[in-house]
Amino acid sequence: LRDFETLSAGDRAKRDGLAVGKKVVASSSTTQGGETYPAALAVDGDTGTRWSSDFSDPQWIAVDLGAPPRVSRVELEWEAAYGKAYKIQVSTDGETWTDVHATDAGKGGLEVIRFAPVETRWIRYHGTARGTQFGHSLWELRVFP
Predict the structure, then answer these.
(1) What pLDDT is attached to residue 11?
(2) By CB count within 10 A, which of 9, 24, 76, 134 is most buried?
(3) How far apart are CA 65 and CA 67, in angstroms?
(4) 70: phi then psi, degrees, rounded to nearest 5
């Protein structure tokens, strides 16, 4: 071990976002070649693991942030299978959703989405069209103030 870094909980949240380790649910997850890609892997803080949905549209993944923080940015770090058309939605109860962002020009890679700050308990990626024949597949879904 040559270098190491000690981070406070606040410093870690600034770097990794508010969604790491939070409760997460998804419309589906897929198993390919004996390996399963559950929703929890999109919010585990590890860019070597991922969530992948079934190979169909629409698909979604939603994170329960707990106490409603104020959020204004979402980062989607895509695996090669990405969402071409999607919405970022917020909810106070996990049932009624409000759009804060929508696009039909998703490009994959790292997408940084900024929107007017909002207090919310839940945040959801709702994909309506895939960019490939595979599912919607995220290395990480990050949420920031």
Answers:
(1) 57
(2) 76
(3) 6
(4) -90, 125
Look at the block and give the residue holding tokens 């069209």: 129
As a whole number of angstroms, the distance between CA 14 and CA 79 comes to 23
Joined tokens for residue 142? 């990050």
Q: Cα-Cα-Cα-Cα dihedral of 11, 16, 22, 24, to 10°?
A: 170
Tell me the one-letter amino acid at 109.
G
Residue 108 bridge partners (DSSP): none
Q: Give the pLDDT means over successive 10-residue stretches in the chain (145 positions).
A: 65 78 97 95 97 98 96 98 98 97 98 98 98 97 97
For tokens 């104020």, the residue is: 70
What are the residues whose beta carbons fall under 8 Å from the beta carbon of 58, sequence distance 6 or more?
Answer: 27, 126, 127, 128
SS3 letters across 3-30: CCCCCCHHHHHHHHCCCCCCEEEECCCE
